[in-house]
Amino acid sequence: MRANGSAPEEALPRTEHFFARVLTIEPPNPDEEDVERLQDFLLRRLTVYVEAGLPDTDAEHLKSRPVFDSAQAERRYLREAQRGPDDVFTRRWALGALELTIEALREEFANDGKASLVPHLQQFLSFSGGEERYAEVATQTGTSVSALHVAVYRYRQRYREILRRIIGDTVRNEEEVDSELTKLLVSAS
After folding, report:
1. CB 51, CB 14: distance < 8 Å
2. C-alpha separations of 48 from 4, 43, 52, 54, 103 in Å
3. What are the Cα distances from residue 133, in Å, to 109, 137, 151?
4. What is the pLDDT of residues 131-156, one digit of tens each?
5. Whole-prediction pTM value?
């Protein structure tokens, strides 16, 4: 909403109202609407919503029940203010998918009693750790270097699987997952 020109105090109720409306509308009908990607569907609906504006009565009603952290949303907007509304939406979508993947991994590792490893493993997602970094982290975590290599391998493998599942839930066909992953990674950078 901020990228579309709303002031911070206006963006919060507009965003909440938009998502409240999205939750109450009928799902898209593929015969009537192009819904290959959930992201595109939401962006089209958001564009129409922004053009229509927010009814005053709904804005007053929503002010009493905040759903989003407006300070965090404003900080994110200010970091991305030079981007256009579609770019901001796409980037936030991509970063949200990546954050959701990390959160799912964190939960899995916690359930397996390995939650303390997660902060150390995240740094190896980008393949930017040499053997000396593995040795350093192994010492910090009280594991062997070979055990850390195995943990990193499994972490990366689960990361790919979870991210593919999350992306698969937003596209109509399984064949589109790889293309969507590429778009996601480009948008997040």
Report:
1. no
2. 12, 9, 6, 11, 32
3. 21, 6, 14
4. 888 999 999 999 999 999 999 999 99
5. 0.61
pLDDT, tens only, 90-129: 888 888 888 889 999 999 988 988 888 888 998 888 766 6
CA distances from 106 to 31, 98, 152, 155 (A): 39, 12, 13, 10
* Helix intervals (H) in the chain: 8-24, 38-52, 56-63, 70-79, 85-111, 118-122, 131-141, 145-168, 177-188
Cβ count within 10 A of residue 72: 9
3-state class of 37 per DSSP? strand
Reading the block at residue 46, the tokens are 């958001």
Going from the C-alpha of 104 to that of each of 83, 149, 150, 166, the distances in angstroms are 29, 21, 19, 10
